[in-house]
Amino acid sequence: MLEFWEFPLQKLDTKILIADMVNDTIHDAQHDNADIKVYTNGSGMEGKIEAVAVLYWGGRKKVSIWYKLGPQNHHHMVYEGEGVGLILAIKLMTKEWVIQLATFCIDNQANIRATQLMEPHPGHYLTDIFHKDLKTLKKKHSGI
User: Fold this and answer.
1) Structural domains for the chain
2) CA distance 56 to 86
3) CA of 103: how far to CAs of 14, 28, 58, 96, 99, in Å?
C-alpha cells in the first residue's frame, strides 16, 4: 500500500551553502566544525539506481546505509536516488545521541535547491519525506 504525505511547503530553517568551485568546497569541509557530517549520493550504475548515506562523527566513519531503488528507466532516475540519499542520512542521524551541529554533504545542486522550493516539483514526495523526517530529527535533538 502506498502512503502519501501532504505537508505545507515551507523553507527549512537551516543554512544552505552551494560552493562555486571545488576548492571552495574543500576549504569549507576542512573548516566545518560539525559534530556529524553525513555524505549522501545517488547514482545510476549498470542500469540500476542506488542511494547511499555515510555518517562521520568527529571525523571518523561511524555507519553507512545503502538502498537499491530499482532499474534505471522511466520509473527510477538518479535524481530520486539523490533524494533517497537525503532521507537515509536523516535515518542514520535519528539513531545518534545528542547532536548539536550537523552538516549534510550533497553533490547534487538540484536536490539541495529542492529542499527550499515552495511549489511542487518532480520528486517532491521525496522532499516531503525529508522535511517530515527532519522535523522529527529536530524534536529528538532539540539543540541541533
Assistant:
1) 22-138 (3.30.420.10)
2) 15
3) 10, 11, 12, 14, 11
Under a CB-based contact definition with an 8 Å cutoff, are residues 68 and 48 in contact? yes
Rg of the chain, C-alpha, whole Å: 15
Q: Which residues on adjacent β-strands are paired with residue 70?
A: 49
Single pTM value for the model = 0.77
Distance CA 115, CA 133 (A): 12
Q: pLDDT for 15-48, tens place per residue?
A: 666 677 767 767 777 778 888 999 999 988 888 8
Q: What is the DSSP string of the chain?
A: ------------SS-----SSHHHHHHHHHT---SEEEEEEEEEETTEEEEEEEEEETTEEEEEEEEEEEESSSS--HHHHHHHHHHHHHHHHHTSS----EEEEES-HHHHHHTT-SS--TTHHHHHHHHHHHHHHHHHSTT-
What burial letters (b/e) apply to 42-69, b meaning 16+ CB within 10 Å? bebeeeebbbbbbbbbeeeeeeebebeb
Distance of CA 126 to the CA centre of its chain: 10
According to DSSP, the β-strands at 48-57 and 60-71 are antiparallel
